């Protein structure tokens, strides 16, 4: 009840009408004079490089988040996975992922630009990819800036998997899966949506990757966790055992690093130093995260009787994932509502997955898959349509959302994308995980799991010199 | 004695006269041609967004600093407070704080711009707020950039309180206090100083917030610590017990994150991509932090017989807080002297507060309140006056300081601001803390405190699997 | 064997010819119109300040990396060293280091600009220093921006020493050595190479400091570790004892922070917001790090039987150090090969140094000295020559490298620089360490070492409340 009151108060406070109208840009018209392109390129480059470094830093965020949420006996393994995975992603995305995603080809896949090279020294992405500014040429930054920005995104998708399969996966299986995910699946699906492929052509919109990055990683994580089965201590005699994380200080640090990183992830996806767009997206991103953190706190407080730190953390992340698809297309009040709902979703998703015996040690599936889907659909509910924001109108974008009077069209487009990506990733993940299972194997032995992956996979421990429980 | 020598040597080395004169900008005159406003807006936006993200990251700095300085049995609680507080600040500042601070109104409070909206889609802050460029229009960045930059500052004020009240405050009391602090007090006092309110009109200057942010947070922390009383183990039988922090690795990390964040906090407060101003403020900020860290190290080495890591950490932070008010108005040598003094102040402040049985587990009162006051007064001592630096002359700023031949005028202005903010914050904090005490209560029970706030407030522990002392 | 296959596959994949040619800039010619200098100064300032803050953050990276790799009983000491060393560097570089490095003088040392001041308010570095744009005037950023950027580099050199001498050096000896290193040796050697001194005039090139920063720090670390001798527990009865780090979570965090910091270190060394140059250097830096991390992982997996997290970490760092000298002069495939080799070098260097009883607790000598030398020589092997990249041609740079058909000239230039800096740093380090040994002493007593430096040097422990092993 308290929560209904709390949410009711917040909802009542949201200045829906006013906000939707008043938040348009307010600069005087004389700002519209054109910036010379050589200057614009420098501005865009600085902006995108800055955003790229923030997104790169998310690797540290995921490493700390996931490691802290698991047991000390798996810490070295998770750290090693999260460190090497970006090196693997760099290799795979350079060799093939970027070409599949943005190279000239057909509406299903890119076929040029492998190794960041080709006949005309470019995967011709001036044609194939326009970011959210789909109607514009995105060539206003150097090719290698585009590559680096897209690479750090690809790395994010791979790192999402790490947490869900933690504490029982073989190190070698994870590394091979990551190569396949980044080099093949991520690039291909990305082509459909950001490479002007068939989903883009059908009117599916995902501004910064609720689907492209988070759902793709989330589906791979989900199938991996399903195939691996739960950790041996998770369901003793059919009961659910809590397996608390060993270091919530670094998990909280990880959450804050990820929150920081999202200020590159979402506003950086403009790929252009557009002040009004950047500013708007910073604020929608932040308010969704805040609202989601608060709603997850309230829900967990009601539901469990105490404000649960792991739920506050995952609540914040849920809001960030959820607003990623729509951050450029919705007003601040809608962003907060998207966040409030994601904060509720993530708590119940964690609870239900646990009851269904799908063991996800860090909550990655709930955060990235469930809220990635929610965020993708939210585009069809809350988009204000192309008449409100300057960047939206110029660049193209989703139709007016259902709740803003636009009917079901955009929502159905979004649903189509969710389903297409879902089926594809289920199929791909099943195939790759099973192939790995029949070759190198994906799960460590029961003895190795009992000893902990740090000893069995790395012959090391993370916290030498401390006395620790040994189960 | 060694310290007198050390300080003497440093002081003798400072190139007072030369520095004060020679540090003026040295660019050729042809740089003065005007940058077109549409380009300037992009430059300013990139700069302020960059600075904003650094300041946002200070949330992680405070979380690590404070958590490490406390006991392991309070870690979850401090982490949860420091994570949720930015979500709360976002909500409160969006609803009301920004409007109170920068909205049109009177010289006491802003009355428009709630929910970042209003009749003309702006709290009309082009008139009311000019940053330190008080004579200029600060409208050269989008409204939402201004909002986000000011929001991360507001969040900082709230997070300061967390450390001082740690290990005995109720979670719910802290969250409600934070809402009131950010939504009401911070915004109102900020209006007086940065919103062209009565203190600004009387000639009080605080460049980046030694008073607006640090003293405001510091007073709230001080009153909170006073009302809560010391932790139950702090003064056994009237003796002072040392209660060492449980993780100085993350505390040191926190200090370095905060140092990093201050490179957004101070230079970002230009709100404008002015190269000479940014460069100067980077250097004064860094040199004050360095000098303060060194002087606190030397003082603690002499006083305690060993270089105390917690004093090195708080020494660096003390210098950063102290130079915040004056970083744009003083030369490098003065910045170092401000830092040297803050490093001394913070050590003795920690010692005396402990003797007076005001229990501040992390030293927040000494760092933010004591050095915030010192830094605010230092403006009246060291300001070079409006004839030296380009940005200073154009933008307006404090009168020449006492030690630079300007008499007592500016120092008295600063003292007036310190007193006005002090009395106001003492009153506000007393009222709000006492109101909370009579409703939800502010202090956990003795049993809960003994068990640790992690168990009693969150039913969790931060370091599961490690063997720990249980007192 | 597996490794030969792995490396062979990677090598076979590298698109040598295509890459080398195709990676040239591809912007249309109309971008070449000149940006007005007042705008260029703002762009450069924002870029360099951004890069500076990333490099500053490397202090946190080193602190976490080194602390985690040592025992818990030395944690406070290492944290204290790594925090205070930047304050000391700031002082020393402001007083003298910057003047020695970039001030007018002769080809051996700068003689003006102490305290960042002088007759014409500048060390006249417009003439003396041109960054890699040696033929251009680097005066296109304010003096204090140059100072701050160079200061954070100087701090890096000092912090390298900290790890190699950890767990047995006196705190006071380390602080005094750091003052001398940054104030005297770093500035002088830097003058030879970046201050247009004799090595620069002879044609030695080091883009971002494989020699200037990493080898200089590495030599000081090497001599320090040699003179100090190994830790008392390292070689019991002539056997090699593993002394595992106490917190690999923070070490991994440190590695990722350093990786992030290098995106300022290398691309920032353009000192100019040149989009093509920045983009190229981002990518070469990242790909070298990735390749090196992967090769170190593979080598350690083969050699030790398990993928060793400490080797993954040091492998990444080895690649970053190695590509630092050449990142602007080589193509992506070469950068990867440089990284692959550094990843192999670092593993065997760690193994051999250990066998030779040179005790380097964190691997600093292997990472910074060995791979710093390798990277410096690699300029003479892989440089594409001044006809390929726009920034290279305009700014001057190394001759075509040996493997690209340029003969031995550049390689010999590089070798000369390696030897000159090596002999100088050996001499300087021996003198300073021995002088300190005869005055304050450099090594703690056996009892103090047994108790741990935290207790003996600081009377504190880092992890109060945890039960820990006490040897």
UniProtKB/TrEMBL annotation, chains A, B, C:
PROSITE patterns the record matches: AMMONIUM_TRANSP
SUPFAM superfamilies: Ammonium transporter
Residues passing through the membrane, by range: 46-70, 82-102, 147-166, 173-195, 207-228, 240-265, 277-304, 311-329, 335-353, 365-383, 415-436
Ammonium transporter AmtB-like domain location: 47-463
InterPro entries attached to this UniProt entry: Ammonium/urea_transptr (IPR029020), Ammonium_transpt (IPR001905), Ammonium_transpt_CS (IPR018047), NH4_transpt_AmtB-like_dom (IPR024041)
Key words, A-Z: Ammonia transport, Membrane, Transmembrane, Transmembrane helix, Transport
UniProt subcellular location: Cell membrane; Membrane
Pfam families for the chain: Ammonium_transp
Tree of life domain: Bacteria
Recorded topology in the membrane: Multi-pass membrane protein
Homology family: Belongs to the ammonia transporter channel (TC 1.A.11.2) family.
NCBIfam families (alphabetical): amt
Protein name, per record: Ammonium transporter
Taxonomic source organism: Roseofilum casamattae BLCC-M143
């Amino acid at each position: 009840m308290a929560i209904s009151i709390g949410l009711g108060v917040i909802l009542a406070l949201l200045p829906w009408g006013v906000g939707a109208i008043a938040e348009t840009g307010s600069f005087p018209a004389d700002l519209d004079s054109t910036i010379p392109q050589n200057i614009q390129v420098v501005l865009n480059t600085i902006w995108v490089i800055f955003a790229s470094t923030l997104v790169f830093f998310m690797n540290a965020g995921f490493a700390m988040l996931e490691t802290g949420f698991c047991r000390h006996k798996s810490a070295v393994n998770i750290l090693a996975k999260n460190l090497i995975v970006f090196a693997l992603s760099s290799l795979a995305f350079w060799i093939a992922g970027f070409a599949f995603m943005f190279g000239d080809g057909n509406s299903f896949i890119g076929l040029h630009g492998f190794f960041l090279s080709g006949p005309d020294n470019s995967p011709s992405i001036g044609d194939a990819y326009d970011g959210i500014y789909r109607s514009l040429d995105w060539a206003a930054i150097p090719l290698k800036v585009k590559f680096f920005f897209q690479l750090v995104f690809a790395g994010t998708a791979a790192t999402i998997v790490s947490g869900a399969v933690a504490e029982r996966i073989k190190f070698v299986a994870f590394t091979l899966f990551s190569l396949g995910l980044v080099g093949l699946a991520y690039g291909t699906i990305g082509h459909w949506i950001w490479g002007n492929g068939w989903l883009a052509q059908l009117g599916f919109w995902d501004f910064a990757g609720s689907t492209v990055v988070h759902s793709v990683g989330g589906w791979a994580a989900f199938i991996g966790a399903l195939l691996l089965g739960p950790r041996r201590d998770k369901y003793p005699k059919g009961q659910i055992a809590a397996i608390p994380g060993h270091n919530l200080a670094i998990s909280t640090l990880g959450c804050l690093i990820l929150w920081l990183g999202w200020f590159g992830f979402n506003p950086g996806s403009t790929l252009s130093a557009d002040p009004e767009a950047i500013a708007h997206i910073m604020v929608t991103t932040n308010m969704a995260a805040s609202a989601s953190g608060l709603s997850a706190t309230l829900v967990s407080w009601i539901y469990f009787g105490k404000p649960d730190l792991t739920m506050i953390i995952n609540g914040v992340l849920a809001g960030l994932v959820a607003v990623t698809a729509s951050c450029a297309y919705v007003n601040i009040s809608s962003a907060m509502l998207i966040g409030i709902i994601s904060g509720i979703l993530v708590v119940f998703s964690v609870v239900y997955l646990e009851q269904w015996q799908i063991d996800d040690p860090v909550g990655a599936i709930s955060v990235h898959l469930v809220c990635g889907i929610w965020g993708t659909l939210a585009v069809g509910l809350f988009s204000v349509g192309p008449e409100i924001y300057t960047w939206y109108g110029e660049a193209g974008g989703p139709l007016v959302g259902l709740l803003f009077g636009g009917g079901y069209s955009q929502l159905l487009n979004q649903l189509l994308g969710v389903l297409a990506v879902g089926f594809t990733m289920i199929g791909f993940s099943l195939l790759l995980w099973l192939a790995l299972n029949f070759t190198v194997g994906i799960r460590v032995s029961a003895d190795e799991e009992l000893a902990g992956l740090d000893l069995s996979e790395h012959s090391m421990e993370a916290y030498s010199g401390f006395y620790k429980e040994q189960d």
